[in-house]
Amino acid sequence: MKIKYLTLFLLLPFILSGCNYADPDNRSGFFYNTFAKPMDLLLNWLGTNLNHNYGLAIILIVLTIRFIMLPFMLSQTKQGQFMRKVLVLAKTELTPIQDKIKRAKTQEERLEANQDMMAVYKKYEINPMKNMLGCLPVLVQMPILFGLYAALRWPVYNQITAYPDFLWFNLSQPDIFITAIAAILYFLQSLVSLENMPKDQKQMGYVLMIVSPAFIIFISLTSASALGLYWSVSALFLVIQMYLSNKYYAKLADQKLETLQQSLAKGDKKKHVKTVKRKKK
C-alpha cells in the first residue's frame, strides 16, 4: 500500500509537466478550480496581509498543514513504535501462520490461516488498520503541492513575482542553496523515520533516503524556489517532530509491552492451572 502511494508521489514531476495554465483561457477544470486557484488566492491574501512577505506566507501554509496533520502523524508514530516491538514478541507465533498462508491452496485453508492470524493479532493487541494512516500525510500533501506548483508557475495576481525577495533568494526563481537545504533535510527526515520502521520495511526506508532527496533536487532546480522553501520548512518540522515523538512513544511502547507480557503470563498461568486440575480429575 505504502509503495503504491510512494510511486504516485514520485511521479509528481511527470504529472505536473502535463499541466499548462500559461494561457488564461486554459485556467479551468476540476484540478485548477479545486487546488490551484484556491492556493493562488490564499498565497495572495496571506502575502498582502504580511506586507508582501510571500516567503513568510509559504511558511505559515506549511505550519498550518503540519499542525493539521500532527494528530495523525503522532498516532502513526505511537502505533509504529509499539508494532516494531510487539512484532518481535509475536514473531514465533506469526511466522508459522504466515508460512501456512503461503502454502494455502484452497479458499478454506486461506480463511483458516487468516483467522489464526487475527487471533494472534488480538492476543498481542495488534491493529493492522491503524497502519493505513501512514498513507494519509502523502495523500493530503499531493493536491497541496499540485496547487502550489500551479499557483507559483502560473499566478493570476503575479504578486509573488512582484515581491519575490525572501532572505537571500528570489522566490520566483530556482535557487541552488535552498535546493541543497531541502535535499539534506529530507535525507535527515528519512534517516530519523528509519527508527520507527519494522525490519521488513527498512529496505524501503533506505531507498527513500536516496530517492527523496533526488526527487526534491529535480523538482526544485526546475521550479520556483518557493517550492524548495515549502519542502525545507516541512522537512525541518518533520525531523524535529519525529525525533521528539520517537523518544516519547518508545518509552510508552516499552511500558505497554511490559503490561502486555504480564497479562499474557497471567493468562498462561491460569491455563496451566486449569490443565492440571483437569488431569487430576
Describe the fold and architecture.
With 281 residues, the chain is mainly alpha-helical. The protein has helices at residues 2-10, 12-17, 30-49, 54-103, 107-123, 136-153, 159-162, 176-193, 202-220, 225-280; strands at 165-166, 169-170. The protein has one domain (30-273). Strands 1-2 form a two-stranded antiparallel sheet. Helix 8 (176-193) packs antiparallel against helix 9 (202-220) and helix 8 runs parallel beside helix 10 (225-280). The protein starts with a helix and ends with a helix. It is found in: Cell membrane; Membrane. Its main location: membrane.
Largest beta sheet: strand ordering = 1-2
Strand content: under 5%
Low-confidence stretches: 1-8
**SS-based class:** mainly alpha
Mean pLDDT: 75
Main sheet overview: 2 strands, antiparallel
Count up the domains.
1
Number of strands: 2
The radius of gyration is 24 Å
Q: What is the CA-CA span between the terminal residues?
A: 53 Å
Shape: elongated
Contiguous helical run count: 10
Q: What is the percent of helical residues?
A: over 70%
